[in-house]
Amino acid sequence: MTRREIVLAAIDHKETPRIPIDLGGMDSTGITAIAYNNLKKHLEIAGGYTRVYDPYQQIAIVEDEVLTAIGADVKPVPLLPKQWKPSKLPDGSACEVPEKWNPVLHPDGSQAIVDQDGIVQAVMPANGLYFEPVNSPLAAASSIEDIGKSLALIESVDWPSFCDEEYAGLEKRAREIYQNSDYAVMGNFAVHIFAGGQMLRGYEQFMVDLLADRDLAHRLLELLTQVFIERFDRYWKAVGEYVQIVNVNDDLGTENAPMISPELYKTMIKPYHKRLFSHIRESGARLFLHSDGSIYDLISDLIDCGVQILNPIQFSCKNMDLTRLKSEFGKDLTFWGGGCDTQQVLPFGTPEQVREHVTKCLSILAPNGGFVFNQVHNIQPDAPSENIMAMYEAVRTFTQSGCM
Question: How confident is the model over 287-332, as pLDDT tens digits?
């Protein structure tokens, strides 16, 4: 079987000769650029480029040599800039960033992204590792009319200004991966409905809207959904011939519970998820949802909305026990993640502890298919390269032992 066939068979809960592996198929299954530079050095891979395509999270594009070294099976088609330029990561190591990504360095060591109107869009504190978005553009909106007049701002959500590639560029890259390799191709559609409201209104204000100003919230969610459906149609026209999996994002959980009650989700968010997800499913694409945290109470609704693949399976959170999830939802979902804890085990364990931990996770998730190996969210800067490779060695050993 080809890599593409193995991934698709796993999604369809069919028998595969080995566990498929993903690193970097989308912006929450990847590796931060500092960890990536360290891993390349560990693997003695010289040359190439550490290109930070998601400057907010500092996520690197994973190059072919690294994909081969770890045995990966998936390649992404993210929105990219037309041009790159040299830069430095917080640890001083080299990278490239989008040409239009221009942080302002302040005397205290912090950095800020400032738009053409002088409004700060994102900040990285001194000694920080990530940029955080600030100054939500619709925070001051006070009426449905205000929301309706803001279509241009809504249309800009999840389409970063520093990525100026056009659909023709996406099509070209998707076609090249599909025709010149046997990787499964992940379409990084990467839009948010729930989190889109938070980004536009501000986290706190949007949560208030959901309870205290539902008409305004519904109007915003309606417009977001319509914008994303129209965007998907343009996106799919460009890449649909070559892409097998489409990812969407929407963080719904905290460490201990969903961000909103299941009842509020059903009333305020689910109708828009279902409309968008159903539209994507009609294209024939397999639908992948990234949602962090404790989301057990929402999984049945997400399946009803059309979700086929769930990521990152953050099993350290409340009610996210892997055995329970596999037992209750394993026939309806493919678990894309849950292979290794990135908060404690991967950065702080020994290589042997990592291997034991991964083997335990695989013994629960791998049987009967419906599983693609990925760590829980992105590999962080403090993860030792020895531990990263121990993680992938455990996957290979598990397959060779016949435990699938």
Answer: 999 999 999 999 999 999 999 999 999 999 999 999 999 999 999 9
Q: 304, 274 in Cβ contact below 8 A?
A: yes
Return left, alpha or beta for 49; rule: phi > 0 is left, psi -120 to 50 is alpha, else beta.
beta
d(CA 15, CA 369): 6
| CA–CA separation, 62 and 75 (whole Å) | 9
- The answer to pTM > 0.85 is yes
CB of 274 within 8 A of CB of 305?
yes
Domain extents for the chain?
Answer: 3-30+71-77+137-400
pLDDT, one tens digit per residue, over 181-232 is 999 999 999 999 999 999 999 999 999 999 999 999 999 999 999 999 999 9
The DSSP symbol for 268 reads: I
How does DSSP classify residue 44?
T
130 within 8 A of 57, measured Cβ to Cβ: yes
Retrieve residue 238's tokens.
Answer: 């460009």
Residue 240, amino acid: G
In CATH, the number for domain 3-30+71-77+137-400 is 3.20.20.210
> Residue 310 corresponds to which tokens in the numbers above?
């769930």
